[in-house]
Amino acid sequence: MSSTDDRSTTQPSSPLPGYLPSRNPILDRDRELFDRTLRSFVVPGAFDAHAHLYAMDHLQIDRADLTEEDGDIDRQTWAQITSWWMGDLAPRDGLFFGLPIPPVDIDANNDFVARAARQAGGSHGLMVVRPGDDAATVESRIRADGFRGIKVYHLFADRADPGNAAIEEFLPEWAWEIADRSGLWITLHIVRAHALADPANQKSIRDHCRRYRNANLVLAHAARGFCADHTIDGIPALAGLDNVYFDTSAITEPGALMAILKQFGPRRLLYGSDYPISAMRCRSTSVGDGFFWLHGDDPRWNDWTMGALTLSGIDSLLALRQAARLLDLNDTDVERIFVHNAKDLLRD
Ligand SMILES: [Zn+2]
After folding, report:
1. Which residue, 224, 252, 223, is CA-closest to 318?
2. How many degrees, rounded to 5, is the angle at CA 164 between CA 298 and CA 316?
3. Which of 112, 123, 269, 339 is the 20 to 30 A CA-CA neighbour of 333?
4. CB 132 within 8 A of CB 161
């Protein structure tokens, strides 16, 4: 799939998986952009703290939509596709979890992730957990399969508008208790219109991080700072918490990353790619008091001469680089973000 032409992409007719290698070509200009701007910034041996793996069989997808390029999104594909634009700087290990979307066969996807994590010494997995799951079953499966923690997602909240779900609706108390008992990692993508600027989200994070001090909470996407102001406005509310962390995944503007670095320093931010989103030509953009996702298949890009949409994984690294430059981070700080913060959290 490492095509070098500019053939246009079309949306898959199936709603899932949203990413097919055959429809998301990586171009020479993506590689050139990475080499020119990011090769001197990305740390060798990076650890990817946020990557999704799944098999095509886990999806409710029309097989007619797939070409022979569209194999399982497994650990090998993660390494291969990421190396097509990062070259030898592609992350060596990662923290993997399934695709947390209700039509996906979550049990099979969890098994798939556990197997992938076992096959690679420095990589680990999180178990996708739903609020309706049985707590004892989840805890024994985490132990048996060697998961290092839990991934939750708002689409499993029992409501018609999951984008407005309170954290408690998809991260149940028993999941915190399990994480607290074994010092596990919880990756949480908060929602509601104002994300971290939402007082109910702030209170839930504060209360639970204080109650479950042995659990480590990782707020995905810079606390869903797709609108940078939400993280900038909300981050002071988390001051003093010593078990809250943030990943950089799919954040393509520096503001939210800078807010985290200013509030907490360089030990709480973890590089994450959000693979396979990182291999898609898209980006999130703050728009007023909200955000919008730009996609590469918008025909208006065809006539635009002042820039071209690149992979979200590249735009996200550019945002991290901007934040690091503007805050004068040193090499040790940047190494922490790419490698050591995640490994310390995993006690590797
Ligand atoms: Zn993700």
Report:
1. 252
2. 45
3. 123
4. no
What are the φ and ψ backbone dihedral angles of 86, each rounded to 5 degrees?
A: -100, -10
Q: Ligand 1 centre and the CA of 305: distance in Å?
A: 31
CATH code, 25-58+69-346: 3.20.20.140
Percent of the chain with pLDDT over 70: 95
Other C-beta atoms closer than 10 Å to the C-beta of 83 total 14
The pLDDT of residue 98? 96
For residue 287, what is the enclosing H or E element? strand 282-287
| Segments making up each domain of the chain, as ranges | 25-58+69-346
Q: How far is the CA of 287 from the centre of ligand 1 (A)?
A: 21
Of all residues in the chain, what percent are helix, strand and coil, respectively (each to 5)?
45, 15, 40
Compute, in angstroms, the gap from residue 38 CA to the centroid of ligand 1.
22
The pLDDT > 90 percentage for the chain reads 84
Reply yes or no on whether the pLDDT at 133 is more than 60.
yes
